[in-house]
Amino acid sequence: MNASAAPFVMTLASLTVLALATLLRWRLGKAHWAMHPRGSQGYLRDVALGMASLAPLLVAAVVLRFLIDRDPGAASDPRFLLILAVGYVGVILARRLPPLMAARRRIEDARAASWQAREKAA
Question: What are the structural domain ranges in the chain?
């Protein structure tokens, strides 16, 4: 494989895994769709927003892969750990953005409402 294409192939693979995880999480939440304010499509949108918070880590991984491909001997450089740490901090900060917090709250509210409805029915 061409060294310059490797980070892009790895990014495509990572995006594919994230998309499959998003669809799986959405599908497993089918019982909660009815309680979501926007139904199944809104639930999918909120799950996708939650997964989008992983974007900083994906960017950090692509940068690391590109740098390691260019200079394999530099993989033990402390700057590489710094790039990875910046990616993790980016995920933590992204999860605190108001749109992502609201999406997470809507999902939690839909789950709670679904569980309450099940308990009343039983």
Answer: 13-121
